[in-house]
User: What shape does this take?
Amino acid sequence: MSISMLSNTFANTVNTMASRLPLHAIWTAGSTQQRTLILGVVLAVLSNVLFGVLYAYSSFLAPLSGTQVFIWRMLAMWAALIGYLVISGRLGLHIDKLKALRTVKQWAWLLLPTPIFLSQFWLFMWAPVNGQGVQTAMGYFLFPLMMVVFGCVLFGEKLSRLQWLAVGFAAVGVGSEIVRTQSISWATLWVCGTYPMYYILRRLQGIGAVTGLLVDLTIFVPFAVAYLFFFAPSSVDLVSGSGFFIMMLIGLGILSVLAMKTNVDASQLLPVNVYGMMSYLEPALLFILAITVLGNPFESSMIYSYGLIWLGIACLIAHGVRQLRRARRDIKSAIQEQTA
Assistant: This one.
């Protein structure tokens, strides 16, 4: 089944679901803005669920190692992305954006975030099957908080009291975890310390998410193929000789592209604050999956430090809700002034 057919099927499913929910009156009689908000929320939830499924996916591909699953995922994702862009007729649009880069400096600037992206995707597939699932999920919990800090330091953004509280709770939580374990997981530090830099660099470059993803994957494909044939030929024999593994890897590529596509679509449909709050669903799912499905350890003594970090997240959500309500009041005031 092609990506376009999957997209049409999903759109029909959304309409059917919407007609059966209590929100049916809003969906049918509400404004275009309300329908957009509902669809954006549905897409955001779906993308986070898909990312959760992908997090546990590597555990079903044994005896492939976490690194081998990462390599295969990158290849499958690249093939699925190229297929989607060809079918949708958008491949030329992204190629034209890249053709606009004329100098070596521009290309070097474009490729600077690629190692960060690849290392994050490797960790995402490696951690669940190597006992680092909980620690990696915590890195994703800290990621929005670190984005707030980076925004303050690099862009001079002002922090509200709730945002300062969020950063404070997170700092105390991380500090207590360091005291408890006399260390902190490198997986946690790598996610929350480097992933914000990837998004900041892409933002400074003005490169869209899909264009950046296309560049990152295409650059990596030759290295992935070389790794499989020179360092992991047994995995090539295993996959090529098994219909199950071939279908699982095809599914891995399609799910990866769908997860990225629905996430990007949600970010474009939803207000920034709502999208930011919805992003906390993914690390929550990763955390639950790491403990339940993957069996990663969670000690009761971790509740204090993790609880403080979650308090920080609650402060960020409260800040987002307050901003959203303020924006709605401003819109209503503007409408009343125009009609007066």
Q: What stands out?
A: The chain has 16 helices and no strands.
